[in-house]
Q: What sequence folds into this?
């Protein structure tokens, strides 16, 4: 499998509420036969890997998705095992699973802190200008 990966030197990128997979799978009849080996009982579980759309397409198989009624989680068997995905919309009563669409979480994921960088003040443009001039004079 050829997938481009960017390693971020952080123990975790984000966390999400533990969906308690065993309970979730047993709750929906269209998840019969889905197996997820995750017995983590912590209230929050870490996200270690974020797949983009093209990477997700790489791990998809020809197995059909298991789709229930509108608003129910979707199960899909991939090359990396079963995945449970949110039904495509955020609902207060439905757990957010593989997909995460909350703006705050997206901003947290994209923040410079996640990548081990620090943000600078907006008023430090003089330093940027001086570095630009230095690089320009060296060229």
A:
């Amino acid at each position: 499998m050829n997938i481009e990966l960017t390693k971020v030197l952080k123990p975790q990128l984000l966390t999400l509420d533990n969906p308690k997979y065993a309970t979730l799978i047993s709750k929906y009849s269209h998840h019969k036969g889905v197996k997820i080996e995750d017995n983590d009982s912590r209230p929050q579980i870490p996200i270690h890997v974020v797949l983009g759309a093209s990477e997700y397409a790489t791990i998809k198989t020809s197995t059909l998705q298991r789709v229930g009624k509108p608003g129910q989680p979707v199960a899909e068997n991939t090359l990396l095992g079963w995945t449970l995905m949110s039904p495509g919309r955020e609902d207060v009563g439905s757990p957010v699973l593989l997909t995460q669409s909350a703006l705050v979480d997206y901003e947290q994921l994209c923040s410079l802190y996640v990548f081990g960088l620090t943000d600078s003040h907006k008023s430090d443009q003089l330093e940027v200008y001086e570095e630009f001039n230095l690089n320009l004079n060296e060229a």
Remarks:
- The first helix runs from residue 21 to 27.
- The first strand starts at residue 14 and ends at 17.
